[in-house]
Each structure stands twice: as C-alpha cells, then as structure tokens.
Amino acid sequence: MRFDGEGGPVVTISDVARDAGVSPSTVSYALSGKRSISTETRHRIEASIRRLGYHPHAGARALASSRTNVLALVVPLRMDLNVPVVMQFVGAAVTAARAYDHDLLLLTKDEGPEGVRRVSASAMADAVIVMDVEASEPRVPVLQSLGRPAVLIGVPDQPRDLSCVDLDFTAAGATAVHHLAELGHRDIALLGPSPAVYERGTSYAGRFLRGFTSAADRHRMAAHSYPCVPSYEGVRTCLDELFRTQPMATGLVVHNEAVLSALLAELSARRISVPQRLSIVAVCPDDMVENHGLALTSVAIPTAEVGQLAVEMAMRQLGGIGQPEIRLLSPRLTVRDSTAPAPADLPEPVNN
Amino acid sequence: MRFDGEGGPVVTISDVARDAGVSPSTVSYALSGKRSISTETRHRIEASIRRLGYHPHAGARALASSRTNVLALVVPLRMDLNVPVVMQFVGAAVTAARAYDHDLLLLTKDEGPEGVRRVSASAMADAVIVMDVEASEPRVPVLQSLGRPAVLIGVPDQPRDLSCVDLDFTAAGATAVHHLAELGHRDIALLGPSPAVYERGTSYAGRFLRGFTSAADRHRMAAHSYPCVPSYEGVRTCLDELFRTQPMATGLVVHNEAVLSALLAELSARRISVPQRLSIVAVCPDDMVENHGLALTSVAIPTAEVGQLAVEMAMRQLGGIGQPEIRLLSPRLTVRDSTAPAPADLPEPVNN
DNA sequence: GCAACGCGTCGAAGCGATTCGACGCCGGAA
DNA sequence: TTCCGGCGTCGAATCGCTTCGACGCGTTGC
C-alpha cells in the first residue's frame, strides 16, 4: 500500500487480497465473475474492497486484458452544424456508455483520420464512434484497418464493413413532403443546412435533399431547395431568393434547426402568417419544436435513440455477438400548429 | 510482434529496439528525451518507429509512469444551460489539450462527485477540469482529496486549494451597468438565466447578478432582475413582468444567450425599438452578437480563452510548476448597435 | 598522470492487473 | 472403494512500458 502525494493511500489488488486473506487472483475473479467464488469469500473480498476504498488501476487492467472500457467519440467542432443537436447525441452516448460501465474519450473531427488511428493504435479505446459522416468519408479506410469495432452516425457512400446508424433522412424528406402534399400544397420549398454542409458532402444533408426532391417529383409538386447560412442575414437572403423564385409557395420544409427562430421572426416581420399563408414542417429534435411561439409540425430527429444505439452497436460488437449492420430509423411526423391545408384561393404572391 | 485480430501487427517497443539494434530502454529514452541519445542512434530509432508503425501502448505507459496523458472534463448536460456556450468551452479545451499531447475524457455532471472520484481513483486521468460550478460545489471536497490537479471553470464559495478560472462576472455585471449609466439610462433591468440556474446556485449567475445590482446601486439607478426560462413563452412572460414593474425602463442587460433572438423578435413584435426606446447589452460569446438582425453591444464571454486557460493551468500543475490560483478575466465591452443614449424626453411607458 | 565527471547505452526490476494451469477437496457414478 | 469432474483457490507468467543503477569510454581539471 503505497502513499502517493496528497492523495490517499493507493490501494492495489494485493492489498485487498491480503486484507481478505486470499490471493490476488481470487480477488480478480471475484470482481470479474469469470470463475466462481464461494459466497463466503466473495463477501469477505467485497468488504475489504469497501473498507480500503479499492479502485482497479485502469492502465494495469488495460495492459493485462487488452480492454480499456473506453469508447472514442469523434465529434465535429464546426459551428455550421447545429451545436445543440450534436450535444444531444453526445449526451445520449455518454449516458449509454456509462450504463455499460464504459467511458468516452473525446476526439475532434479536426484531427482527421490520423486522430482515429492514434487513439486506436495506442489502445486508448476499444471502439470508435464517429459523428458528422461525409459521403466519401476519409476515415472509413482507417477505421476499417483498425481491427476494432466502429460505428458511424450517418452513412457514407462506401460503408464497407462498418456499422452505421442514423435517422432515415431520405424517408424523412419524403415524409415531410408527403404531409404537405396531403394538405393540398403544390408549390413547396426546402430550407436546408448551410451551403458549406452540402459542399462537404455531409451524409444526412444529401440524403434528406434526395428524399425531398424525389417525393416532390412523385407528387408532381414544384419544389426547390435553398441552403441557408445560420444567421439572421442568411435567413433573409434565403427568403428573398425563395419568394423571388416561387412567389406562390405555400409549404416550407426546414432542415436547419439553427434558423428556426430567426425564420419565424422574419416571417412575422414580413407579415407572412404561419400556417395560414405558409405551412412549415421542421426537421429537428422534438424538444426544439416548442419555444418558438408556435408549436411546429415536425419530423423528429431521434438524437437520444441514435446516440444510444450507436453505443449499443459498438458494445455488441465488442461482445463478439453481432456483425456490422446499417440501421436507419424510420421517421416520425408529429402534426402540430405550423401546418394547415393549402390556401383554397390562390395565395397572394409574396413580393419583396 | 503479435498479430491481433484483423488489425495490423501489434508493434511493441521491443520490436522497435530489435529493428534499430538497441535496447528497449534506449528507445524509451529516445522517445521521452529524459536521457541524451546520440543523434545517430536517435535517427535509427525514429526510422524504425516509422517503418514499423509503432504506437506506444497507452495502458502500459500509464502503468509504468503513472501518467495517462488524459484530462478528465466534467460537462453539464442540462438543457437549461446554453449548450453552444458549453460546446465552445469544450472545443477550446480539447484543442488546447491536444497541443500538450493530451486527450480528454468526457464525464457528465450527472455522475456527481462519485464520477470524479471513480475516474481519478482508477487513474484514468491525470487532472480534472470541472464546468458548471455551483456556489457550494459538492465536488470540491472530493477534488481536494484526490491529490491530483483540478481546475474549476467558475468559482465556488469555498475554492479551498483548487484552481479556478472564469470571466470576472461580477465585473462584467458592473461593466454592463456602467455603460448604460454613461449613456444616461436611469431605469434598467437584467434579463437573467433560468430560475433553475439561480436555484442551483450556479456560480456565474450569482456573481453577475451581484455585480449588476451593486453597480446599479452605486449609480443610483432603478434596477431589477428577471430570471428567464429559455423559450418564447418565457421571454414574453419576462417582458410582461418587466414592463409592468418598470414601464419606464430604457436599458436591458441580457445574461442569457439562448433567448437573444426570441427577445429581439418579441420586442419588434411589440414595436419597442432597439436601441431608440430600449438599449440592450448582451452578455455572450462574441460570435453570438451577430445573427440577430442587429449587432448587439456586448460584454464578451471569452469561452475560448477560458477553456484554453483551464487546460494550461492543469498542465502547469502537472508539470510541478505553479500553485493553485484563481484567475478572473477582465470583462471586455464592445459597443455595437443595440445601445444608444437614453431617450431625452420621457419615453412612452410600455403597457401590455 | 590520475581522479572525477558526463555521455550514451544496457539490463533488470517494477508498475497492477488478468489469466492459465494446477491442485486439493468433496460428491456422485460406476 | 475408486475414479472422475466440478468447484474454489492459488501461484506464476504475462501484458508493454519506464526508470534506476551500472558500466565503459572519452574529456577535463589539477
């Protein structure tokens, strides 16, 4: 039992063993349950552990067992992504991980493929979860060569043998359009994420757009897409452009959580009433549909589920059961107060 | 050189040593620089490392050196805090940590003091950084007994021997008030964070409020504070309350980034012009003052600096130089378009 | 000319866990 | 009664790295 600086005594497994009158290996087996231990002995060991305040040394454990009980999570730090949404994923993931007695090591996308390799090669994590996946994701080859479980949140063009989980954004796009179609809208638009997001080839943006476009085609609706930088100015520019191109548009799908409040404020300033003149379908986590002065009809982004599933898929692979798989969650539409039947009489064209 | 599942060969320090024709300890010294190595030998070792693709095993390193090169970061997951602000801290911290060749382990405040103890006692991290500090912070005793460096972002009532870093929120409150006083405002209000934040005794909220109140007293201004839940509804309620209590208020300090856009939208809906009728000083990170249709006069929350400083203070303590210290950054006011001299004629009272 | 020293390198002893094989004991099957 | 198998436990090897002490050699100082 060494003493270490200010901190209390550093208790090792041998200290526990001595205190309980058994050998270290017995303590180890009592802890891991990999061999049976008599109830009698187990209780004695548990008591010693509590009395001495024993915590296994993570490094030693990792060295001996080649398991760290740590998951690496790669998050985007960019500000053109919606930050609260990212945080929701992270929160769900860390909570799920703790339920499996694992911790999360935080990496940033900035480090690129090399960061993933570094952490994995130096055995700092047992598996890797990657957010903000791009269509031609440069981290896929690295991830694949790692020989560790990996889960992508999003779907690249070539997932190879990697697990993916996400909302089915293609279906989500279609769902939003379908809802507007049912309400009789014939001329609709998509207010999408920042152009930068598309240019980067971000997985979900493209998938949603495809779903939106092809559903609109199927319904023979007029439909255009307007990427929108997340600022008041960006919203204004987008709306100008939108109503110049489609002055008779009556439906708007918003796939950009960050601009929701600015959009509603600006529409109200322009005296465009929602949902009378313009119906709005938001695509965002459920807890973001309130707080705008109007409950928004929305297609939910199930951040909590996705984050949790990502961890569970990783854990399953670590457990040996379960192969890589691609799981796309079906979209769920909740009708609230921002959508209504298309105006019966031709709406007044919006001019700016 | 073992082979391990799908992953490439697992290269150890002995493999490198053999390849370079030296002993393992020499490789170790070449890597750490703790003893001098001839240039000749060092080059040979570096070449071997590159050729074999050697990455030191983090667990083994931690075991032998009792250093993990990992910092634990405890973040709040609550949604009543402004999430983008939290993310800015995190981003700055992880970037700074990488500059010191360290990684970040993510803990949540949910785990409470026990989480901190767990991670520290099992030697998963060398130091701990804690966000969202409360006045009577329950993690302080644990942190103190750990015998590891710890840095709080925020200042509890009893910091004991722990390092703290933050914006000087007391001074920030005073600065905002002072600016309005100079412009001739005599009747002002504070739109603060959610009541829950105050009830929790969150460090920065109380400090800001104190700075605000005492500065207003000093200037003999009428001043009240209105905690505001971050939703459209919350903003409306607050404004109702505010103008019922202080119909002649001409200045508003907003210490709640999340409601800024809702606030401006609602004010515009109520035909209260900013800054003619009402001057607004925001307290928020600089990159949040745009995007509202009006550049806001603000007292900056230097998230990047604070996050980075937190890491640097932790590193300094790990390096043995530097004692625990409390660093409060001086506030910086930037005058933009949301503040103007108080209306010369008595402003029309706002009634709702 | 010799002691003292610094430099570059090596070997071996840990660090604190896991895990494999072995062993004694007891109960049930033959 | 003997043999076998499972249970509970132990001892020792091992994981990959750091670090301490030692050693040989070439300099430097008196």
Provide an overview of this structure.
Two copies of one chain form a homodimer. With 352 residues, the first copy, chain A, is an alpha/beta fold. Helices cover 42% and strands 18% of the residues of chain A. Chain A has helices at 13-20, 24-32, 39-52, 58-65, 83-99, 112-121, 139-145, 169-182, 195-199, 203-218, 232-245, 260-269, 303-318; strands at residues 2-4, 7-10, 70-75, 103-108, 127-130, 150-153, 163-167, 187-192, 222-227, 251-254, 279-284, 297-300, 326-329, 333-334. A six-stranded parallel sheet of chain A has the order 4-3-5-6-7-13, with helices on both faces. In chain A, strands 9-8-10-11-12-14 form a six-stranded mixed sheet, sandwiched between helices. A two-stranded antiparallel ribbon of chain A has the order 1-2. The first copy, chain A, is elongated and about 90 Å long. At the A-B interface, helix 4, helix 5, strand 4, helix 6 and helix 11 of A face helix 4, helix 5, strand 4, helix 6 and helix 11 of B. Chain A binds a DNA duplex (30 and 30 nucleotides) through residues 12-14, 22-26, 28-29, 32, 34-38, 41, 56-66.
